[in-house]
Write a structure and sequence with these properties.
alpha+beta, 5 helices, 255 residues, six-stranded antiparallel sheet
Length: 255
């Protein structure tokens, strides 16, 4: 039985490019649009770029770490790649959809696999109002910003901001403040991933805020709506001994 048809994409670093050339020479390659599986060579940032680059119908992605952290990647090994890909376990994820309205009235949409972040643009703190499913839950949050993170993204920027690590099958997302000033000790919230989160920027002209979905930035945001993108499902492939769920669980016991 023939193995999966593989396409290779790589980050611009020499390490990633050399790995792509070696794998293509060993196994051949086809265009990503015709492949059964796309092998992404780089770090977590490049994995996110790859997932975003395929639009509404991304193929399954098998990542191999040729970058720094590699949380979303498998270990790099050139030998037996078709067999590894065929035996890999699939993790399917819905991204978040950010709909950001700017002070100028423009509406921009972008998807986030890790998180949507609102960040202050100037020396002054941001003032935000938080609504969940149309119900006001926090009248005013003064902070450097706020993060709405998926389980896959909960170990990234969210964890650095002291947010919780979410189990992959927990069907949840979290809201984590960044350097909250008022209320100073608000820890954030864990919510079902079916909710709609509306973040309104108060005093937006005096206290400008940027909205960022993974690496898509919208400057001078006035209001941001975040919810699960029901129309898109992403498929990441992991070696059985490096499953994403196990890594998320293991991360919670790191010193």
């Amino acid at each position: 039985m023939a193995g999966p048809r593989l396409a290779f994409v790589a980050a611009e670093t020499s390490t990633a490019q050399e790995a792509r050339q070696a794998l293509a020479a060993a196994y051949g390659e086809i265009a990503p649009a015709e492949a059964d599986v796309v092998v992404a060579l780089g770090g977590d940032g490049f994995m996110l770029e790859t997932l975003h680059s395929f639009g509404d119908s991304p193929p399954p992605i098998y990542g191999m770490n040729r970058g720094s952290v590699g949380f979303l990647m498998n270990g790099f090994r050139a030998e037996g790649l078709p067999e590894r890909v065929a035996a890999a376990e699939t993790v399917s994820l819905h991204p978040l959809l950010m709909e950001a309205r700017t002070l100028a009235g423009q509406v921009r949409k972008a998807r986030a696999i890790n998180e949507v972040s609102l960040l202050r643009e100037t020396r002054q703190t941001a003032k935000l109002r938080i609504e969940i499913d149309g119900i006001e839950r926090m009248e005013e949050l003064m902070c450097d910003g706020v993060i709405v993170a998926t389980p896959a993204g909960s170990t990234a920027y969210n964890l650095s901001a002291h947010g919780p690590i979410l189990p992959l099958r927990g069907q949840s997302l979290c809201i984590t403040p960044i350097s909250a000033f008022r209320p100073r000790r608000w820890p954030g919230a864990i919510l079902p991933d079916t909710v709609s989160v509306r973040l309104t920027v108060l005093e937006a002209r005096k206290r400008p805020v940027s909205a960022v979905a993974d690496f898509t930035e919208v400057r001078d945001a006035a209001e941001v709506l975040v919810h699960r993108d029901e129309g898109m499902l992403l498929h990441l492939l992991f070696d059985p001994d490096r499953g994403l769920e196990e890594r998320i669980l293991k991360e919670q016991f790191q010193p």
